[in-house]
């Protein structure tokens, strides 16, 4: 109990940020229950209205409730972001672990592929891939996975190369443990915490990249509410109805800031070098 109290005192910012992140996730999961209106229903008679008791944040150019679209947009943006981070984490960690553990030609092939992807500017390469595949949320996730797996592969490779020389790995081999058992039971548990720190710090970055591609029209397509695409929809009305860009922009800014600060806090707790 005393240790728990000390942890709370030392990590008040971390606990506060966790609560904010949980609130955001709960809002995204319950958007269909708390949204005051149908975010897809258009009504041109209500187009570009200001704030009112009926529409707390006003309406867009098609008469849709902006607050409802923001709430549904939270669900779309956060789901895409977490899905992207999880896929990148799994793909990059798996390839980096395989390259480091087996070495030889396997390591050479995987690392040369990573060099190829590093030769291109990340966001430009992602735009090119998403443009070739066609505009959709899934294609944006695929494009960003292709671009961002390299970092996790290289970090996991370096971690595995240091871990595989430990005495307990040699003991497991002498004890007859199979290759997959050594990787799953002895190697991954030792490298996962460091990779979780990177993943936590990447959440905000990935959300910005998804929003950027959606702003360019490569991500979520109408009528799906997504914060980046909402910015794209509102840019033509910046002078007459600035809220169409201010509200989704503020939502992106606040969410990215929360997850970036949360990632820093997780790094301070889990990283043994801090």
UniProtKB/TrEMBL annotation:
Domain ABC transmembrane type-1: 74-263
Transmembrane segments: 12-35, 78-104, 116-134, 140-161, 182-201, 244-262
Bilayer topology annotation: Multi-pass membrane protein
UniProt keywords, alphabetically: Cell membrane, Membrane, Transmembrane, Transmembrane helix, Transport
PROSITE patterns tied to this protein: ABC_TM1
Subcellular location field: Cell membrane
GO terms for biological process, alphabetical: transmembrane transport
Xref: Pfam families: BPD_transp_1
Record has Transport as a keyword: yes
Gene Ontology CC: one annotated term: plasma membrane
Similarity annotation: Belongs to the binding-protein-dependent transport system permease family. OppBC subfamily.
Protein's UniProt name: Glutathione transport system permease protein GsiD
Species per Swiss-Prot/TrEMBL record: Clostridium ragsdalei P11
